[in-house]
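A favour, since you know our structure tokens better than I do. Go ahead and set the record down below.
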Amino acid sequence: MKNSQCKSESGYEMIGFGGKPVNVTDKIEKENCKCITESLLWNPSPKKLSTEQLQQIRKALPVWAAENVKNFSADDKKTLENQLEKMKDEELLEKLKYKFSYFGKPALEEIPVYAIKIESAWAYYPDYSDEYAAYGKKDKFGFEYYPLKDKPDYPLLENEEWAEEELGKK
């Protein structure tokens, strides 16, 4: 049965950060999202990456590859830097494949994860922009649910071990 792994008595729920339940009924029924697992969602229209994010990825990928791709030489790193520098945003977006989403901290924020293969290794880019935006906001009474001082500083790119350990996916 479609989406059965996240079906609940009150609609659809997934497990978010820290085991908190996240109601995804509207995402399933109105946005045609699908439950991959009890904590991973496939969104047919994930949030698009901005030009600024693409620039950050361009800068970070060669460094990430040097640390995560087996036998990736200094020459390989320079070649990748040159390729990424010449690549248009549209080309990079084609190479960055949306894989899935999960719900972070704060739990209501959907975090889409994109991946790109560099030689034999997958680099994962979790888009934390919506989660980061929740930090430092105050409600009408001036209360910060997520104080700016508690804002996490996640790595820009993750490796396959992260995907397997954190999300159970590759």
